[in-house]
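Dear Dr. L.,

I hope this message finds you well. Following up on our conversation about the binding site, I have prepared a predicted three-dimensional model of the protein together with 2-deoxy-2-amino glucitol-6-phosphate. For your records, I am including the exact sequence and ligand specification that went into the calculation, followed by the structure tokens. Please feel free to forward this to your student if that is useful.
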Amino acid sequence: MCGIVGYIGKRDAAPILMEGLRRLEYRGYDSAGIAVAHMGELRLAKCKGRVRELEKRLPSRFKGAPGIAHTRWATHGEPSDKNAHPHCDATNRIAVIHNGIIENAAALRARLESAGVAFRSETDSEVLAHLIAAMPEHSLDAAVRAALRLVTGTYGLAVLDAARPEAIVAARNGSPVVLGIGEREMFVASDPAALVRHTRSVVYLDDGEVALVRADGFETATLDGGPTAKTPSTINFTSEAFDKGEYAHFMRKEIAEQPEAVGRTLSGRLEPRFQTTHLGGIELAAHELLDIRRVKILGCGSAYIAGCIGAHLIEQLARLPAHAEPASEFRYRNPVIERDTLYLAVSQSGETFDTLAAVQEVKRKGGRVLGIVNVVGSTIARECGRGIYLHAGPEIAVVSTKTFTCTAVALALLAIQLGRIRDLSTADGGRLLAGLAALPEQIDGIVAREPEIARLAEQLVACEHAYFVGRSAGYAVAMEGALKLKEVSYLHAEAYSAAELKHGPLALISPETPTVVVIPRDDLYQKNISTIAEIRARRGPVVAVTHAGEMPAPVDAMFDVPASEPEFDPILLNIPLQLLAYHVALKKGCDIDKPRNLAKSVTVE
Ligand code: AGP
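The resulting structure of the complex is given below.
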């Protein structure tokens, strides 16, 4: 969602900040803005719309440093020029950019207004600029700390004072802030994607920390001013990982990257000697794993759906009751937390607010929760403290593809580990390990057959509606296929459990409405064949996604995936559906990497 970039050093800030903003575009936003300090004065430009609109509005000589810049995703106040960040104090000396929500903004605003402050926007963030300006403290960092002590809510923020250009100040509470360490220059960002071009040495702020950032270094402290110690870490990815390279879209690039991404998720975690897996990051000894009686998986959107595949695997392989639930529902229903349940929070970004709130609810009630997260050092990863990193690499397209696959693989690893300390035999353990190791090559083979899937997409592109059906784990694949298609192509796609069709949705089947039927090679194969017959009897076109071999029922189109261990069928069956969604969207000319109304990480309620 909102994005932050800051720069302090000898260079002009604007080109660095604008490039940083472009790199944050993938997160989703509706307006953008920039402020730089120049000869003791603040230069400011901001507008509703894309970063390229802002670029057009920048005066040709927009010189100065330090500087801060922002992409906004509206929460308080509509997307507009005046609501775009940075926000300034009355004297246009202090500029603030802010991600998050100030919960006591109304009270603070009333207090400032009664002291004579005139507000220029409808945002909660503007109070920060006026509040900081009103603080008697003589250093900027002390003024920011004093102001933040009055604030309730979440923030990742950066502050610039044109009269004191020797430093910028950044702070974090619930919304990520990372400092980038350069050669006599420093960067601030909400996401390493914005600074990876300049440095790979970074420091992640913790909640409640304020950083004073100078060109030659930084200091961090708590809100009360007590110094904190930070150790820089290295970003493991080069800037190419954040570029589209030869691909037209990040989504397509990330689909193609899945073999390597899955290879990294598996790396070092297979233990052929004992026909099991080993996940060091979960920090649970065998006897603790043995005490688990139930598994509950929490996530939103695709993360939740990957959780459904994981729950199915855990039940199958470890014979433990396992269930996935949208974190957004779980957190609001005063859930019963059990001591012997293992809670898993799934989130590629590690910043999804609903998932974070669910983690906090579990922890508050004494439950044990592990994170299954892609972004290292993200809020959910830290909140959980232990778990499984996906190592899928940066995912820039708003829609999840490689992280969905890697999440399902990570949950498969956990299912095997839980299974092998229970009743899963060494023979089955060995068989499953071989199945996992084969996945990267099999995925590669599916992606190489893209032209076949592009032809399949022609069947859907002219339709207004499409249905996806499957049973059991195949139903989760259908859910993800429908979600992906609606996200990127705006085609109305719904998933139904195949068994539920005749309880209602069958009324919707017509010659104009194709149904994608997901058919794994499981015990329910014959039942899925009957589903095809039911649909075709109502003259509904059927696209079957299944395995090679003869289809015992006529279908209108078919795509087959290679045989894997049946447990991993859902992982392979999902790959053609990703490409299907991509090609429908491509043919419809949609903004594939940035679908309308969506953001990469949903950091608000
Ligand atoms: C996936 O394509 C979506 N854009 C969305 O459903 C996403 O999976 C969801 O918002 C959760 O994100 P997270 O994995 O970063 O928590």
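In brief: Residues 300-303, 347-349, 352, 355, 398-400, 487, 598, 601-602 surround 2-deoxy-2-amino glucitol-6-phosphate (CB under 6 Å).

With kind regards,
A. P.
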